Each structure stands twice: as C-alpha cells, then as structure tokens.
Amino acid sequence: MTKELNLTEGNIINTLMKLAFPIMGTSFIQMAYNLTDIMWLGRLSTNAVAAAGTAGFFMWLANSLVLITQVGLGVNVAQNLGKGDIKKAKEYVRTGFQTEIFIALLYSFVLLNFNEQLISFFKVKELEVVHMSESYLKIIGIGIIFHFLNPIFSVSLNSSGNSLTPFRINALGLLFNIIIDPILIFGIGPIPKLGINGAALATILSQMIVTLGFVITGIKSELVYSHIKLFKNFDIKKAVTIVKLGLPPAIQNTIHAFVSMVITRIIASFGALPIAVMTVGSQIESLSWMTSEGFSAALSAFVGQNIGAKKFDRVKEGYHKGIRVLTSFGLVVSILFITIPESIFSLFTPNDMAAIKAGGTYLRILGLSQAFMSLEIGTAGSFNGLGKTLPPTIVGTTFNILRIPAAIILSNTNLGFEGVWWAISMSSVLKGIILYLMINLEFKKEIFTELYAK
After folding, report:
1. pTM, 2 dp
2. In the structure, what pLDDT confidence band is assigned to residue 452 with cuts at 50, 70 and 90?
3. How far apart are CA 48 and CA 46, in angstroms?
4. Which residues does 315 contact at the CB level (< 8 Å), separation at least 6?
C-alpha cells in the first residue's frame, strides 16, 4: 500500500497534523457542499433555504446510519494495521462495504416511497416549503448510495494513515459541485432553471464523481480497499464486530437528528424565518464541528493504531496534545462568532436584513460553546479509537434529549425562539466538560494497560 503514515512512531504533534490536515480538509469539503447549496439557494428565496434545511435533516439521519459501519470499520482497520495484520484489515474493509451497501439501499427505498410522510412531521405552514422539501428528498433518495459509500472509502484510508487520497478525491467532487450547482439551480443556455431540485441533483452527481474517483484510484494503486472481493461470502462475525462498535455512536447521532427535528418543529411555530436562520447558521457553525470531526477521526486512527501496537503512554500523550490543538481552534471560532456574527451571516443571505439580524444573534449564542463542542467531538473520537464507543454515546444522547424540554421552556419565555438556541449552546458546553473528565478517569485507571493489552 502507498502513501501510508505509521502513527505508532515519530513526533506526536507532527504525526497527528500530517494525518489530521487532509482529514480536516475533507471535512471542510463536506461542509462546502452544503454551504455552496445554501449560498445559491439564499439568492433564490428564503423558502428555498428553509426547504433544503427541512429535507436536510434526513441527510443528517443518513450520516447517522453511515456511522453504523464507519466507526467500527475504522477502529478494526486501525487496530489490525497497528498489529501488522493487513490481511485481516482487508477482510474488515470488505465486510464494511457489504454492510454499508445494504443499509444504503434500504434507506433509499424509504426516501423514495415515504418522503411526504417524512416532511409532514415538521408541520411546516408554508405549502411551497413543503412541496420543495418533498421534491428535494426524492432526488436525493435516487443517489443516496454514493453518500453512504464515500465515507467508507475515506475511513478505510484514514485508518491506514493515508488521509491525503480522500482529500484529493473529495476536492474533485467539490470542484464539480461548485461549477454545476448554480448552473442547475438558475439554468443557463439550454439547461432549464431547476431551482431547489437543481441543488439536489448537483449534490448526488458530485457524490457519484467522488465514488468513481475512489474506485479508479483503488484500481490504479495498492490501497487498503484495493482488490477486495466484494461478492465473496458475507462474514457475519466481522459484521457483528463492526456494528457492535458503530451502533452506539450511530444511535447517538440518530437521536441527535431526531432531537433536532423536534426542535425544528418547535421553531416552525414561529414561521419560516427562524427555520431559515437555523439552517444557514448551522451550516456556518459546521466550520467548527466539521473541522473537529476531521481532527477527531485523526485522533481515533492514532489511538487505534497505538492501542494495536500496545503503546499506551503514546495514546495518553497523543490525546492531550491533540485536544489542546483542537480546543484552541474552537476558541478562535468562538471569538469570530461573538465579534462579527452579522458580517459572517450576511455572506449567505445578503438581501434579507431580518434574517441577518436573527442570524447574528444565533451565532453569538452558539459562539459561546464552540471550544467545548470541539472538546466533546475530539474526546469522542479518542474513545472510539480505544474501542469504547459507549461513554460518548451516553453523554451525547443524554444531553441532546435534554435539549427538548429546555427548548420548550426557554422558547415560552421572553426569549422566544432564541431560547431554543440557548438550550443547544449550553448543552454543548456540558457535554464537552463531562466527556473530558470521563476520558481522564479512563486514563488514570490502574488497570488501563491490562485492559488494552488483551
């Protein structure tokens, strides 16, 4: 295999950065897909932004389902490569792809056949928003399999220390999306104006390009997923091992998605404006959490390989050094959100002063929690690398669910819909602090070395 990085040797910060920067770049690319859509749809109409945001929750749910395979596959590939067992790592990759394809086809069926029922959950008042959301979801459902496969290609390579290849291939998809998005939304020459349907179509076409890029690269180069026999008998035992690790974070993210859907339903009672503001605001906020997810993936691979190599002191040192870098980044984002929120928000809805004002408030409130959110996400990735996916699931799920009563209570005060944003921000602060304390307790256990040496 080529372009791999041995995570069990060398300077820790340099090693983490070499792995993390391309992964964070890939995360920025995923964020840029959504931001590109929102930027162009914001110039189409506020209702178009609200529609994309409403349907977008089911993309979030798709990301949760991806985690069922992605997390467990990443842990097993990293730990087996750390042990030097390449054959077994490839067997896990094959099983991971087989599992993911099954999940993707099942979810595609749901989106194509039950989109009206899914959108009706939000009880959105504006019929135009409802119809656009349903149409958007149908188109996404046709090509959702590419959205499922690409993270599996990426995590396979990231876990082997090769994060540059996923970055390059995803960058190609983003470039295609940037070019084709406005063309399909607004039309040009013989290409008709498709509106929000054009944004959906651009997304699935771009994801298809990325999948083809991974396949072609795997054929030309010797990578961890190269020459796997996809149609070989399904290994149930390995699938169970993958799912056992991936299910807790998948459940957490699924519950988080449902909680956010309920919160959107609460927000919807105030009209389309706060839905649009939260849609744009959450995409801007993804600057922080997508970057954190990227660095978290690097920490997970680093911890996994060093656990496999039984270098336990390196695991602890790597976590603490990595988390300092990550929370420093989150602090910078917090400062930007608190000091110039309207200027940032106006980049996406330049013609709607009411949205800019409300969006500025959203970013100020969420800005208070960005460093803590980075702390939570980075720590969760480290727990995953240890093969202990349950602690971050318990913490994350508990406080995400508590957002609902907090949002209901605060939104019925003088704060109005701003109370919902306070509920989200404060829960993120608590999750970060608690999870940090938990992993340090894990490291301080006298039997830590014995547990992971088995």
Report:
1. 0.73
2. low
3. 5
4. 303, 306, 307, 385, 386, 452
